[in-house]
Amino acid sequence: MSLEPQSWPQRKLIAAARAVRAHFPPALPPALFLTDPARTPDPLAIAGGLPAGFGVVYRHFGAPGHRGTAQALAALCNRRGLVFMVAADPLLAVEVGADGVHWPYRLRREARKWQARFAVQTVSAHSARELRAAIRFPVDAVVLSTAFASASPSAGAALGAARLRQLAGAAPCPVYALGGLTAETAGIAAKVAGLAAVDGMKPFGPIRT
């Protein structure tokens, strides 16, 4: 993580990522930036400011021009030492030379088919039940939501610090905490889980004046 932090949120997020490193497997990024066509329309701007070692999960949801964006993100991540993953599109991941694939919970079974092809595979889970089901598949980590209260339209009821600690601590594989991740909550999550965020990674984007 060679980037010199320029703001208080960046410093807090980088410190939290360092805390994750203390208990996470070295091959996994301590923090994931999950893109969203609506909420992060310029993912390259944010990815370009992430510290080396972080991860980018490109979620295109079929948006126009997604192939070109994936190629540009793959090149940027390779250049900056970021782990690059494509969500729910293994063929695109292969095409652009991504490091791995992130699977929505509904596609978790696909992880078996692609196990030998990618260095990293993760899967989403939105409850304790889904977490138990997800870890039956050959994935390297589970992205668990909703960790903290979030304004996202798709966010469910927040797990909170205690429940997150319980679930992540009992899981046999690493867990990323997604939902409500901010500079303030990242330090709480980092004690037991990796960091995953959409809006929460915006501090690494261009400074707005």
Task: Give an overview of the whole structure.
The model has no long low-confidence stretch (mean pLDDT 94). The protein has helices at residues 8-21, 43-47, 66-80, 90-96, 110-113, 128-134, 160-170, 186-189, and strands spanning 31-34, 55-58, 83-87, 100-103, 120-125, 141-145, 175-178, 194-197. The protein is built from 8 helices and 8 strands, in the order H-E-H-E-H-E-H-E-H-E-H-E-H-E-H-E. Helices cover 32% and strands 17% of the residues. The chain has a single domain (8-196), classed as TIM Barrel (Alpha-Beta Barrel). Strands 1-2-3-4-5-6-7-8 form an 8-stranded parallel barrel, surrounded by 4 helices. Helix 3 packs across helix 4 (90-96).
Overview features:
209 residues; alpha/beta; TIM Barrel; 32% helix; 17% strand; globular
> In whole angstroms, how far apart are the ends?
26 Å
- Average pLDDT works out at 94
Number of domains: 1
**At CATH's second level, what is the architecture?**
Alpha-Beta Barrel
Binned, the helix content reads 25-40%
Unreliable runs, pLDDT <50, ≥5 residues? none
Question: How many individual β-strands?
Answer: 8
Order of helices and strands: HEHEHEHEHEHEHEHE
Q: β content, as a range?
A: 15-25%
Shape: globular
Q: Would you state the CATH class?
A: Alpha Beta
Strand order of the largest sheet: 1-2-3-4-5-6-7-8
CATH topology description: TIM Barrel
Summarize the biggest pleated sheet.
8 strands, parallel, barrel
Rg measurement, Å: 16 Å
- Computed structural class: alpha/beta
- What is the number of helical segments per DSSP (H or I, 4+ residues)? 8
